[in-house]
Design a protein that fits this description.
By secondary structure, the chain is of the alpha/beta class. The protein has 16 helices and 13 strands. 47% of the residues lie in helices and 13% in strands.
Length: 410
């Protein structure tokens, strides 16, 4: 708790020639901290599983690398920040589809997360429903819900949807960075299917029937519109932000898409990564990478070589990126609330997935109170903040369950 107070009392303002520190309103800060503990905070995208697959750490304790924190999630920091329901991303890289190891990768990640829950029942529990979330919140447990990022593990067999539902998967992000056998991705320019594949259409219908939330983060616009028309249940975007702030970035959602998804009851969970939040950051980041590569290429170096990293580091020192702040994330939330309504926005941080690009004041799971502070400062009521923190997502999840029950009765 201390860390939050000290960390947030002084807020470094971006854009000033000299670093300027502004004192925060202590009363609002106190209220933000209280709200973070009393509200159910659901974050629909945290990349802990893949982080632990790369380097195992004990997430029941502060995870550290020397005197610095390593990673953006651990139990003590989640408790500090009031995080109750991290959707653990069962992320499967796009290449695993052609390598035919997608399903086994997903299985490995879920097995690893299950074993953490089993070893620490006093801290964690798996949540398969909003009812589990509420019950476990009452017991002070952190609920791990599973969301699968990339539909490749379905491996062309609808039966695998039931298999993964039974294993605890409650949303599936249909694609990742490349077109897959389900549909087209926003990062791919191939337009393999011009939206959903024929099999992808069956996948959406079966997800509705089983009660798995359909996640349209990462899909192309064509895919989005086809999924929206087809799905009988509201959709989620588990970790996307507003294209209004990043006009050329197809990975974020346009106002038109956000409004249409909201009209069918869905929710966009805002991604905190700076390149999702700020066009200026994205441009500077791209320019910087291009310039560094232009210096490395003639010398036959890459960023993977230590000599290449020295060159890159030197360049980066003299070409800082735009500073993105927790206020800018609050602006995305406010934008959705204004164009689509307060019932249609939530949190999908992408912690442990977007590296050092996290905004000032929103660097890890201990810092949700800073975001709540900004919403309070914008005049949001407690009830509306609770919606953003988790109630909106839980409402969609409950509706997805109801739709599934209806479809199963037919
Ligand atoms: Zn992602």
């Amino acid at each position: 708790m201390r860390r939050i107070v000290l960390g947030t009392l002084l807020l470094i303002l971006a854009g000033c020639a000299a670093t300027k520190q502004v004192e925060r309103n202590e009363q609002i800060l106190h209220k933000a901290e209280q709200l973070s503990q009393s509200a159910i905070i659901v974050d629909t995208h945290i990349d802990v599983p893949y982080r632990l697959r790369n380097k195992m750490e004990d997430i029941t304790q502060y995870t550290k690398n020397g005197d610095k924190f390593s990673g953006e999630f651990d139990y003590p920091r989640a408790k500090q920040g009031g995080l109750n329901v991290p959707f653990m991303s069962i992320y499967v890289p796009a290449e695993h589809e052609t390598q035919k190891i997608a399903k086994s990768t997903a299985d490995d990640l879920m097995r690893m997360m299950d074993s953490i829950i089993t070893a620490h029942p006093e801290k964690f529990a798996r949540a398969g429903s909003p009812a589990d979330v509420t019950a476990q919140f009452g017991k002070g447990l952190i609920s791990f819900a599973y969301g699968m990022e990339n539909g490749s593990p379905i491996e062309g067999d609808l039966k695998n949807l039931k298999y993964f539902y039974d294993r605890g998967i409650r949303y599936i992000t249909l694609t990742h960075g490349k077109d897959n056998h389900i549909g087209d991705s926003s990062y791919d320019t191939t337009h393999t299917w011009k939206g959903l594949s024929p099999f992808g259409k069956e996948v959406v219908v079966e997800m509705n029937r089983l009660g798995i939330m359909v996640d349209i983060s990462h899909v192309s616009d064509d895919t989005f519109w086809q999924v929206l028309a087809l799905s009988k249940a509201p959709l989620i975007a588990s970790h996307s932000s507003c294209r209004a702030y990043t006009p050329t970035f197809q990975r974020n959602m346009s106002d038109e898409m956000i409004k249409a998804m909201a009209a069918k009851g869905g929710v966009i969970q805002i991604n905190f990564g700076s390149d999702f939040i700020s066009d200026e950051y994205q441009k500077k980041d791209r320019d910087r990478r291009d310039s560094i590569n232009a210096q490395l290429r003639p010398r036959n170096l890459t960023m993977r070589d230590s000599a290449g990293r020295v060159v890159a580091h030197e360049y980066e020192m003299h070409h800082p990126l735009a500073v993105v702040d927790v206020k800018d994330v609050a602006a995305h939330i406010d934008h959705v609330a204004k164009i689509a309504g307060i019932d249609h926005v939530g949190l999908g941080s992408d912690f442990d997935g977007v590296g050092d690009s996290l905004p000032t004041g929103l660097k890890d799971v201990s810092m949700y109170p800073n975001l709540i502070y900004e919403l309070l400062a914008l005049g949001y009521s407690d009830a509306n903040i609770e919606k953003v923190c988790g109630k909106n997502l839980l409402r969609v999840w409950s509706t997805v369950e109801e739709v599934a029950h209806q479809l199963q009765r037919q």
